[in-house]
Amino acid sequence: VTPFAQCVRCGACTAVCPVYRLTGQEGHSARGRMLVLASFADTPSSLAPTEVLGRCLMCGSCEAVCSRQLPLLATFAAARGRLPPGAGTRPRRRQYIRRLLASPRLLRLLSRLGISLTRLALLPADSGLWRKLGLPPPQFSTSAPSLPTGLVMGDEGQAQLFAGCLARHLQPEIVSASLQLAARGGLTAADPAGQGCCGLAAWSAGDLAGARSLARRNIALYREQPGPILTPCASCQVQLLRYAELLADDPAWAAEAARFSARVQGLFDLPPSPACGRGTGERGDRPVYFHLSCHLRHRPELASGPRRALKQIPELHLVKPAGPDLCCGQGGLFQQAYPDLAGAIFAPLYRQVAATGAELVVTSCSGCLLQWQSELASCRGTMRAVHLAVFLARYLGEKQENSCSRRIDLLKLNA
Ligand code: SF4
Ligand code: SF4
């Protein structure tokens, strides 16, 4: 029985869909998307499925409230994988410079984010950032690494970092900050060379073979590295946890994928650092907004660590915008494909946060961070966005340097 056949048309998904709320079009709600997919199942060349699937952020809000608990994200991901070859993709890497030069908007985005073309040229072929930036992902090997000879689980105190593409290739301060935080949490964290993309971008695009290939590669890399696998990125965390499900039907990899996912932990789930202090998030004088990514919003068990880590800082006042937590409009490939729609989804969030007086936005999701940094760069205001790992590491570094009697200005620290 297909998910569409199980849908009871209750409409719960329409109330929470950022795209439907903006456009009011039934085809942009989860039930509407499924209706379009079912209606055009026999005409794969039709553009309608590409259109409705493309305008989905894969944010998971619909799935979180679905009265039938339908696997909506997996349904959309699989449907994207069935789109005709070439739909929404550009297969040749050598086109990218030409496209960059032909796209002032893309060049502006890269320069706002401080990303140079040289840096981009060093981006590995299998990084999900190619897709996120709307550039043609180059071909990469999908051959599976060799099978393990035996899993070595960790000694006490050892851990491995999985930094994610943004940190590893474009904003390396996130890597050093993460290693510092792990050390402060009492762990000796290694940063294994050869880390691949977590595969979320490939999975979201419906490229399940590509996502599985990246999963196998990461599993093989970490199999000999002892200890928990810590990640500072909310998106990567959700995808790494998905490896067990992604490879469940692969007899050669299922058990090891399950073991890998069981080792994955959010960096901010480490015990609070005593050096931080004992804040509550309510008594500080610096208003800061914590942007919870959609991935975490629907997984409360994953969301508590980052909030707890932030609240330790006594100088910080965690603002609560009037209204529910809103999506930032990044949505993996969505921002690139539909920049106007993404901007329109971001606008109410920005207004809501600006109204609180917050000048600093902190998030633990690399995709959301890219979206905030790029949108804020085009606003005239003084608001800035920073990764949670960087924010915490800068704060702790400043505290240590000043042996911490005075209050720290969080804004100057993150200027
Ligand atoms: S995943 Fe998000 S954008 Fe897509 S249909 Fe569901 S709520 Fe809407
Ligand atoms: S919430 Fe679930 S069951 Fe209800 S209309 Fe949406 S997809 Fe269908």
Rg, nearest Å: 21 Å
Could you describe the largest sheet, including whether it forms a barrel? Answer: 4 strands, parallel
3D shape:
globular
Separation of the first and last Cα atoms: 54 Å
Structural class: alpha/beta
List the strand order in the largest sheet: 2-1-3-4
The tally of beta strands, per DSSP, is 8
Task: Report the average pLDDT across residues.
Answer: 81
Bound molecules: iron/sulfur cluster
Number of helices: 24
Percent of residues in helices: 40-55%
Q: Which runs of at least 5 residues are low in confidence (pLDDT < 50)?
A: 88-98, 136-154
Please state roughly what percent of the residues sit in beta strands, choosing from under 5%, 5-15%, 15-25%, 25-35%, 35-45% or over 45%.
5-15%
Describe the secondary structure blueprint for this structure.
Elements: H1 3-6, H2 12-16, H3 18-23, H4 30-39, H5 48-54, H6 61-65, H7 72-81, H8 95-102, H9 104-112, H10 117-121, H11 129-132, E1 158-161, H12 165-170, H13 173-184, E2 188-190, H14 200-204, H15 208-222, E3 229-231, H16 234-246, H17 254-263, E4 264-266, E5 286-291, H18 294-297, H19 300-311, E6 316-318, H20 334-337, H21 339-354, E7 360-363, H22 366-377, E8 384-387, H23 388-401, H24 410-413
Parallel strand pairs: 1-2, 1-3, 3-4, 5-6, 5-7, 7-8
